[in-house]
Design brief:
The chain has helices spanning 3-25, 49-68; strands at 39-46, 79-88, 91-99. Strand 2 and strand 3 form a beta hairpin. By secondary structure, it is of the alpha+beta class. Helices cover 42% and strands 26% of the residues. The protein has a domain at 39-99. It is elongated and about 90 Å long.
Length: 102
């Protein structure tokens, strides 16, 4: 192999390695959460607080889905969450509000 051919081959290999290292070193940008305006859901008249919370969360999910679409109905992804429960007599009522995010 001639000196010129070796020089070109070396330059090509160096360029390929440099290009690869740049693409590996640049991590993809983190996807920012997109959040919408707050929605609320509620339940009332349940004998167990767990049932009241579950129904309030289901109500919140329905409200979030109706207002912003199915990609925004996940309580665990929501921001600025608020859960308020109160007992009146023997029955529990709960209200949940949060900003749905996808």
């Amino acid at each position: 192999m001639s000196r010129v051919a070796k020089g070109i081959r070396t330059a090509l290999v160096a360029a390929a390695v440099a290009g690869f290292s740049v693409s590996v070193a640049a991590p993809p940008a983190a996807a920012a959460k997109e959040c919408k305006s707050s929605v609320s859901g509620s339940s009332k008249g349940k004998f167990k607080i767990k049932k009241a919370k579950n129904l309030a969360r289901a109500s919140w999910r329905g409200a979030a889905r109706a207002a912003h679409g199915g990609k925004y109905d996940k309580w665990y992804k929501a921001k600025d969450k608020s859960v308020n429960c109160a007992k009146k007599g023997l029955k529990w009522s709960c209200t949940m509000s949060a900003r749905p995010c996808k």
